[in-house]
Amino acid sequence: MTPGSTAGPRHPWLRSISARLILLYIAAAAGTLTASTFFLSGAFIHLFNRESIKLLEDKLDLLQIILREYPETERARHEQIQLNWSAFQKWKCYARVLDDDGQVLIETPVDPGIRWPSPGSGAAERHRTTDWVAADGRRFIFAGKTREFGHHPRVRRRLQVALDVTEKRAVIEKYLWVSVAVLAAAIAVSAALATILVWRGMRPIWGITGAARRMTASQLHERLDLRRLPTELYELGAAFNDMLARLEDSFNRLSQFSADLAHELRTPINNLVGEADVALTRERTAAEYRATIESSIEEFQRLARMIDSLLFLARADNPRTRIEKAGFDAREEAQKVLDFYDAVAEEQGIALSCEGSADLDADPVLLRRAISNLLSNALRFTPRGGTVGITIRSSENGVEIAVSDTGTGIPAVHLPRIFDRFYMVDAARTHQSANTGLGLSIVKSIMDLHGGSAAIESDVGKGTTITLRFPPPPKRNVPESHPAGTAKN
């Protein structure tokens, strides 16, 4: 593996969320079922052992009571033990009493296959229960203890009780095997259910994937049905729909831009070709050739302005584009633009004005270009005797520069798209050949570069106002003031 390279898991299926969820579900289910099985089995065995031990302890107590209450003869004791033990034969419980020398004094009926522990063995002397395996392989729980009886003299007797648990232990073993089989089957069923549930749970994600794969330029209008998505995927689906909406809007704008660009380029080119064809149909005078060349120069200039504007918009759309901001008086820059258009306005009989003042942190070159585009449009569509004014206002929210005119106005239906590239109101499209439909788009891009906005208000027959809103300038560190007569080192 080369340095810097990345590699996924050795097994591709480990990268699958479905596989991971299935494995985690199976592991959790297997752990829970196994713990439950062991707990129930242990509780069952513990309950059985406790009941068996309790039975043996009761039998030892019974033997002790009989030996204490019937001290006269061993025969009487033997009869009492046989009488009491006959009621418990279903438990296969056996007992015997030995003297201090290990001789059997009293013994209940015993199966010939039973082999008691020898009197001197540790098992025969323990005062606690223990497991005992007879010679024939049968399993017993054994309990024994030594007690003294009588007064003068006191005699010692060894009491032994054994409970045959062979059949019960066999049942327990079968229960354990059945539990293991049920546990394995439950884990297998859990694995199948995990696969089904995970696949059903992942279906909405696959739906999003399928929608993304089906998406083409002609199907950008499709949207995901958010009502069918689970809560965890709702935000993802909403973001996906928002992305599709932005893509659709961008694609529509690009398509419209391409169509408008082709139209705008075709018009001056057709004019140039037509004029050249007419000039070449017959011999012309020098004055006629000059007029043709001058007309062609106008079309070339229009193409140059259009190309310059497109290049500016392309640079403005680049997220890496940076502007050179500086602090200045907005009125001074606006007045410079007004002075440039003063002669044109005087010729058209339009009065220019500028009101207000504010300190602005912006790119002065781009500001002059934005105001120039707005004044150019305002002068183009303001009749003789009208006014075009610039109003500058400052507030806590920033600086506003509004360019107003008393021109023909724009119908409300066109206002939402007035800043789109190459978009022109029908009445203005043929008003002047110098208009390319990019002036307001450039204004909008300039404001985007400054982090501001552009808004338009217009009434047909009354005029139009376009407001440029600049954000407030960043706070600068103010140097500390010093008392008079002191100097700062």
What's the CATH architecture name of the largest domain? 2-Layer Sandwich
Q: Flag low-confidence runs.
A: 1-8, 122-126, 427-433, 478-489
Helix content: 40-55%
Q: Domains counted in the coordinates: how many?
A: 3
The helix-strand sequence is: HHEEHEEEHHHEHEEHEEHHEE
What is the CATH top level name of the largest domain? Alpha Beta
Please report which band the strand proportion falls in: under 5%, 5-15%, 15-25%, 25-35%, 35-45% or over 45%.
15-25%
Characterize the biggest β-sheet.
Answer: 5 strands, antiparallel
Number of helices: 10
Number of strands: 12
CA-based shape: rod-shaped
**CATH fold node name of the largest domain:** Beta-Lactamase
In the sheet with the most strands, the strands line up as 2-1-5-4-3
> What is the average of the pLDDT values?
77
Which class do the helix and strand fractions yield? alpha+beta
